[in-house]
Design brief:
globular, about 55% helix, 8 helices, Rossmann fold, five-stranded parallel sheet
Amino acid sequence: MPAAKGRFITLEGVDGAGKSVHLPWIAHWLQAPGREVLVTREPGGTPLAEKLRTLVLAEAMDPLSETLVMFAARADHVARTIQPALARGAWVLCDRFTDSTCAYQGAGKRVPQTLILRLARYVHPDLQPDRTLLFDCSFEVSRQRLQATGRDLDRFERETREFFDRVRAGYRRLAAAEPERIRVIDAAQPLEHVRAQVRAALADLGGR
C-alpha cells in the first residue's frame, strides 16, 4: 500500500511575530493523530544549509549574494530533507521558505521578484506549500518581543523600521495574491486566540 500523502506547511512572518513560540505547539497538535511530523527551518535543515545559515545571519553581504546563498541552502534542504519526508508520507512543518525570500530580499532589499521566482522554479519546480501560516504583527509588537528575549539579535532582527514595513507589506501582497494557500494569522492576539486561528487555517487539510 502506498504511503499516505504528505503535507508541506510553512510558517512565515516578520521577525518577532512569534513563529518560533507557536511552532512546537503546532507540531505536537499535528502529531496527535499518530502521524509523522518533521520540523525543519530555513535557512537550514541540513548540515550544509545550517552552515550557510550561520554565514547569512552573521555576515553582511549585498542583496543579490544574500539571495543566492538562501537558494543554495534551499536547494540542499529540499533535496535532502523536505522531498524525502514528503515521499514517505510525513507532514513537513517548515519555519520559512521561499515566501521569506520574496518578502525579505525582494520587498525588503529590492532584489527583482522575477529573479527570485525564476530561482524558485529551478530549485523546487514541483514543490509548493500546501498551506502557509503568515504570522502578522506591528513593528511595535515585533520590537517589544525581540527585546524581551534578552539575546543578541541577528542582522535581520536589527534592521530599521523602514525595512520592516517593506517586508510586512511584501508579505501582505503575497497573501492577497494567494489567499487559499496563505492564511494571515493575527499574531498580536493572546496565545489561545492565535492557536484558534491556526487550527482553523489547517482544518481543511485534515490537520485534526
